[in-house]
């Protein structure tokens, strides 16, 4: 008997190969990692990286070609039909396009898994009432899905997925069909479910902002392999793999167009100029941008040009572009990014621009 908390998923050297006319497709290769119980675990990767394949091994919608998937310590490949049915009651799933039955009301959609599980009429009614209240749709019980907004449909999907009190919830691009505001409300609901009910949530998405918003840990897949895994604040703050950096590019605070043009234009010798410096914050060690200390470190007039700091799980990460007068020598930048007196995790000079203000 396992002593792990309920809702733990462990992948052990999981591989998945699909046959295809063009030869075998190695969708997953040698994935070994553990999703701790009661956490929110995100899986990202470009299209075809193997995200769906990995997610679907958790409830045995896909069987690994090699290796093992354990849920609460049990190798799910060993389950018989009955065991598999029981496993799927412990693992809810929600989908991008909700997968609701259009001919059934909200109430009937949510009741269905309970009816299939043989739950009695009264207990079903009580549970459906509870679930609709949980997802904020108590007044929509008799409505058909066609009359609901996307966000409401996903709430029905969540209520249905939670009907049998699962310990794990799999989310397959659950917010990808929703507008940003509705996405926020669904993410808030998922976070609430995770915190209040202790349900482990494994989600795949192509929206990096979703991971940043809710996930505790993130796995980056590239061509079926684990190329990076860690707490979101670390992976997003200081991505180590090129694939991660490429995925995160849309979230980075880049150099704005006008500044880029000024950097490209260069400076005229003898005319006033400014140096543009980039200060980066990765979330490590609780280091935060502190303008008083930054100013002291340079002992030069300093101007904030561009940038921003996000907070992920309480860790500050982001980049600031600052300008200092070009004619003064700079302090040792690498020393300013080292040790207890560091003012940023990395400081680099990205170029000079003409100073039109002098
Ligand atoms: N049933 C299948 N038969 C053959 N090849 C498959 C099958 N399912 C997936 N693949 C292939 O396996 C690889 C991984 O697919 P998978 O759907 O897991 O990736 P993904 O990261 O979820 O992609 P997407 O973001 O586009 O959904 C891809 O090359 C895909 O074409």
Automatic annotation (TrEMBL):
GO terms for cellular component: plasma membrane. One of its GO terms (biological process) is amino acid transport. PROSITE patterns: ABC_TRANSPORTER_1, ABC_TRANSPORTER_2. Residues 9-248 form the ABC transporter domain. InterPro entries: AAA+_ATPase (IPR003593), ABC_transporter-like_ATP-bd (IPR003439), ABC_transporter-like_CS (IPR017871), ACT-like_dom_sf (IPR045865), MetN_ABC (IPR041701), MetN_ABC_transporter-like (IPR050086), NIL_domain (IPR018449), P-loop_NTPase (IPR027417). Part of the ABC transporter FtsEX involved in cellular division. Important for assembly or stability of the septal ring. Pfam families: ABC_tran, NIL. One of its GO terms (molecular function) is ATP binding. This is Cell division ATP-binding protein FtsE. It comes from Orrella dioscoreae. Keywords: Amino-acid transport, ATP-binding, Cell membrane, Membrane, Nucleotide-binding, Translocase, Transport. Belongs to the ABC transporter superfamily. SMART domains: AAA (SM00382), NIL (SM00930).
């Amino acid at each position: 008997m396992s002593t792990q908390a309920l809702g733990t998923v462990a992948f052990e050297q999981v591989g998945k190969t699909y046959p295809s006319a063009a030869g075998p497709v190695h969708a997953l290769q040698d994935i070994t990692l553990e999703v701790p119980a009661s956490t929110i675990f995100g899986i990202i990767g470009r299209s075809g990286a193997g995200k769906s394949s990995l997610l679907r091994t958790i409830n045995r919608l896909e069987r690994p070609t090699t290796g093992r998937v354990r849920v609460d310590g049990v190798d799910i490949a060993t389950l018989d039909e009955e065991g598999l049915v029981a496993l799927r009651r412990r693992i809810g799933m929600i989908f991008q396009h909700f997968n609701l039955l259009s001919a059934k009301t909200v109430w009937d959609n949510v009741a269905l898994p309970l009816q299939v599980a043989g739950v009695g009429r009264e207990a079903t009614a009580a549970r459906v009432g509870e679930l609709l209240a949980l997802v904020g749709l108590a007044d929509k019980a008799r409505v058909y899905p066609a009359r609901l907004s996307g966000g409401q449909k996903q709430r029905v999907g969540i209520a249905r997925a939670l009907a049998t009190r699962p310990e794990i919830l799999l989310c397959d691009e659950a917010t990808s069909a929703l507008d940003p505001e509705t996405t926020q409300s669904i993410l808030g609901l998922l976070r609430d479910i995770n915190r209040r009910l202790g349900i482990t949530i494994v989600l795949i998405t192509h929206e990096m902002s979703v991971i940043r918003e809710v996930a505790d840990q993130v796995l980056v897949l590239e061509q079926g392999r684990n190329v990076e895994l860690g707490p979101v604040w670390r992976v997003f703050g200081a991505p180590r793999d090129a694939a991660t950096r490429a995925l995160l590019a849309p979230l980075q605070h880049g150099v704005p167009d006008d500044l880029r043009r000024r950097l490209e234009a260069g400076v005229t010798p003898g005319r006033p100029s400014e140096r543009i410096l980039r200060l980066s914050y990765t979330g490590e060690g609780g280091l935060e941008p502190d303008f008083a200390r930054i100013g002291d470190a340079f002992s030069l007039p300093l101007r904030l040009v561009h940038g921003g700091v996000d907070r992920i799980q309480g860790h500050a990460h982001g980049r600031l572009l600052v300008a200092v007068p070009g004619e003064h020598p700079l302090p040792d930048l690498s020393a300013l990014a080292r040790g207890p007196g560091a003012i940023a995790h990395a400081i680099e000079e990205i170029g000079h621009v003409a100073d039109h203000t002098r």
